[in-house]
Design goal:
This protein is an alpha+beta fold and about 270 residues long. It has a domain of about 90 residues: hypothetical protein PF0899 fold (2-Layer Sandwich), CATH 3.30.2320. The protein has six helices and four strands; from the N terminus they run αααβαβββαα. The chain has a four-stranded mixed beta sheet, with helices on both faces. β1, α4 and β2 form a beta-alpha-beta unit. α2 packs parallel to α4. The chain is rod-shaped and about 215 Å long.
Length: about 270
C-alpha cells in the first residue's frame, strides 16, 4: 500500500493547528480559570484557617478566663466563708462578753440592792430601837425617876468645866438677869428651889429662873441663858446615839462604794 505523505503532512499540520487552537482558546483559559479558582479557594481556605485559628485562640482565651474566673470565684467564696466565720465568732464573742457584762452588772446591782436593803434595815432597826428606848423613857418620866432630875442637874452643873461655866456667866451678864429652865415634867417647888440655888451659886447670884415644860425632853432639863444652852437629858443622848448610828451606816455605804471591806467582815474573816 502506498502512503500519501502529503496527506499525512496535511493531517499532521491540521492536528497541530487544532492542538494550538485548543490550547489557545480552550485549555489555557480553562487552566487559567482553574488556577485562579484554585488561588481563590486557597485564599479562602487560608482565611478560613486564620479565622479558625483566631476563633480557637479566642476560645482558648475564653476558656482560660473562665478557669481564672472559676478559681477567683472559689477564692472569693472561700474568703467570704472565712469572713463570715470570723464575723460569727466575733459576734458570738461580743454576745458572750455582753451577756457576761450584763450578768456581772446584774449581780453587782443585786449586791448593791442587798447591801442597801441591809443598811436600810439596820438603819430602821437602829432607829426603832432608839424610838422604843424613847417610849420606855417617856413611860418612866412620870414615875419617881422624875424626882431625881433636879439632883442630877445640880450635880452636872457642879461638874461643869470652867470654860462652859464662864460662857454661862458671860451670857447671864449680857441677858436681862433671866434664865429659862425646861423639863419634861413639872418640877415640884423643892426641886425648883434646889435648882435655883445651884444656878445662883455657880453662875449668877441675882438671876431669875423661869421654869417651863417641854414634852420633847426625856428625863432631863435644858438650861438657857441668853445664847448659851446646856442640856442633860435622855433625849440628848438618844440624839447623839442616832447621829452615831447614821455616821456608822453612812461610813459603811462609803466603804462599799469605794470597794473597801467592812471592818466587821474583816474581823469575822480573821
Amino acid at each position: 500500500m502506498q502512503i500519501d505523505w502529503l496527506t499525512v503532512a496535511a493531517q499532521i499540520f491540521n492536528f497541530l493547528v487544532l492542538v494550538w487552537l485548543l490550547q489557545r482558546f480552550l485549555y489555557r483559559p480553562i487552566t487559567t480559570a482553574m488556577a485562579r479558582r484554585e488561588e481563590r479557594i486557597e485564599s479562602r481556605l487560608s482565611e478560613a484557617r486564620k479565622a479558625r485559628a483566631k476563633v480557637e485562640a479566642e476560645a482558648e482565651d475564653l476558656r482560660e478566663k473562665q478557669e481564672r474566673l472559676e478559681a477567683r470565684r472559689e477564692e472569693v467564696l472561700r474568703e467570704a466563708r472565712q469572713k463570715a466565720e470570723a464575723l460569727r465568732e466575733d459576734l458570738e464573742d461580743d454576745l458572750r462578753k455582753e451577756i457576761e457584762a450584763r450578768r456581772t452588772s446584774w449581780q453587782d446591782h443585786l449586791d448593791d440592792e442587798r447591801d442597801e436593803l441591809a443598811e436600810r434595815l439596820r438603819h430602821q432597826a437602829g432607829h426603832q430601837v432608839i424610838e422604843i428606848v424613847g417610849r420606855v423613857l417617856r413611860d418612866y418620866a412620870g414615875s419617881d425617876l422624875a424626882g431625881q432630875v433636879a439632883g442630877t442637874f445640880v450635880d452636872r452643873l457642879t461638874d461643869l468645866d470652867d470654860e462652859a461655866r464662864d460662857k454661862l456667866r458671860a451670857a447671864a451678864e449680857r441677858a436681862d438677869g433671866t434664865a429659862t429652865l425646861q423639863s419634861s415634867v413639872p418640877l415640884k417647888p423643892a426641886a425648883r428651889s434646889q435648882i435655883t440655888r445651884a444656878i445662883r451659886e455657880y453662875i449668877a447670884p441675882d438671876i431669875e429662873v423661869d421654869y417651863r415644860e417641854d414634852d420633847d425632853l426625856l428625863l432631863g432639863v435644858r438650861l438657857t441663858i441668853g445664847e448659851q444652852t446646856v442640856e442633860w437629858s435622855a433625849t440628848r443622848f438618844l440624839h447623839r446615839l442616832e447621829t452615831t448610828l447614821d455616821e456608822v451606816i453612812e461610813g459603811g455605804l462609803r466603804r462599799r462604794a469605794a470597794g473597801l471591806p467592812d471592818p466587821d467582815d474583816s474581823a469575822e474573816g480573821g
